[in-house]
Amino acid sequence: xxxxxxxxxxxxxxxxRDLLNWLLGARDDLxxxxxxxxxxxxxxxxxxxxxxxxxxxxxxxxxxxxxxLDAQARYEIKVARFxxxxxxxxxxxxxSRYALENYPRTAATEDALGIQALAYKKMGxxxxxxxxxxxxxxxxxxxxxxxxxxxxxxxxREK
Length: 159
Description:
Elements: H1 2-14, H2 16-23, H3 35-51, H4 58-85, H5 89-102, H6 109-122, H7 126-139, H8 144-158
Helix pairs in contact: 1-2, 1-3, 3-4, 4-5, 4-6, 5-6, 6-7, 6-8
């Protein structure tokens, strides 16, 4: 039964059409795909780990779960960045907030805070932008977003 959950997770992890490529060593970024399969894969691996914690597949499933959480967070950031780049600042803030709330402590945290600060600044919500920047600076003192927000401030002042 544990192997069945593992296979279900793998199939959703790679997709049926990509399973052969994966077996051959080709890799792609899961965050570029529709997140439905990532959620289903995560669920199958979680079920395996919870029901069969001592399975020989459990350690690999745990590692894949970590990767899947990170990929899901990166997907949310790509969507937030898309919204920001197209001037949909409220949507960018909402997507960034979703990533922060649902995928904490992932590599996407810095990007979520940065995009959120940029969007707040573009909307003229300086207090929220400053609060977000404070959190960003405290957690990521060398973040590239600190300069990007400063440049955005200067750009807005020039207009």
